[in-house]
């Protein structure tokens, strides 16, 4: 097997582009690296600051990153240009996810909240509050109508994406 070197720190997350051609890796060394998944070639490096999560938009045009500096960043995946920085969390952003249509971007944070952003203009649409410890993961349902979050409080919460209503709390982890 081919072993590529590249990151100087922990690799915290990986994500495939929708077409499977690219693999993005996030690291606490402050970089995102974009790899050709077929031949292992390093295509580009994004200087992003302690990166905790990465996600491609459904069309593969954008790459979102979550960072330890309490921000999300939106990148052009084709040329590496920083398009936008999203600020609003009070602590490290731990995870980021696009809605299935790419219109929204959800972020999870150690500040115990989830934030929903308009991915096109960077506007904060709403904040979901209800976890009593850090939020470690967020995911959209396939239709984008619901948002699930997982937290250090050992719960999973299910939310309505469009209005922020808490639908259910799953509390089975001990």
**Count of beta strands:** 16
Structural category: mainly beta
Count of helix runs: 0
Helix content: under 10%
Largest sheet: 4 strands, antiparallel
The coarse overall form would be globular
- In the predicted model, the low-confidence regions spanning at least 5 consecutive residues are none
Q: Report the sheet-strand fraction.
A: over 45%
Mean pLDDT: 92
SSE string:
EEEEEEEEEEEEEEEE
Strand order of the largest sheet: 1-2-3-4
Could you tell me the radius of gyration in angstroms? 16 Å
Calculate the terminal CA-CA distance, rounded to whole Å: 39 Å
Could you characterize what this model shows?
It is a single chain. The chain has 174 residues and is mainly beta. It is built from no helices and 16 strands. The strands form four sheets. It has a four-stranded antiparallel sheet, with no helix packed on it. Strand 5 and strand 6 form a beta hairpin. The model has no long low-confidence stretch (mean pLDDT 92).
Write the SSE topology.
Layout: E1 11-16, E2 22-27, E3 31-36, E4 42-47, E5 51-56, E6 62-67, E7 71-76, E8 82-87, E9 93-98, E10 104-109, E11 113-118, E12 124-129, E13 135-140, E14 146-151, E15 156-160, E16 166-170
Antiparallel strand pairs: 1-2, 2-3, 3-4, 5-6, 6-7, 7-8, 9-10, 10-11, 11-12, 13-14, 14-15, 15-16
Overview features:
mainly beta, four-stranded antiparallel sheet, 174 residues
